[in-house]
Amino acid sequence: MLICKVVKPLVSTNRIPDFEHKHLQVVQDGSTQKVAVDAVGCIPGDWVICVGSSAAREAAGSKSYPSDLTIVGIIDHWDPDAGKASPPPAATPTSQGGAA
Fold first, then answer.
1. Is the pTM of this model over 0.85?
2. Topology (CATH) of 2-12+22-74
3. pLDDT > 60? residue 86
4. DSSP one-letter code for 4
5. CB-based contacts of 30: which residues, under 8 Å, 6+ apart?
């Protein structure tokens, strides 16, 4: 499974019949944008859970569905920066004490 952010909907009116009328979304996985079948009704800005491979086809409705990425859940709360190491505090000058 992947955690992705929905960027925008993708509209494609001319497509093979096997695609039916499922909604498509552009999602971002790190710096890579991909197209995913939207099985849950998400909107741009949502953080979502995506599945790939045969799980994507089955989640889209059929093992023969031509998808390799399907959105299967909307994440209620996700902080992509949580757990990242914060920068070290700035060094403070130390006093060089001594008798004059």
1. no
2. OB fold (Dihydrolipoamide Acetyltransferase, E2P) (2.40.50)
3. yes
4. E
5. none
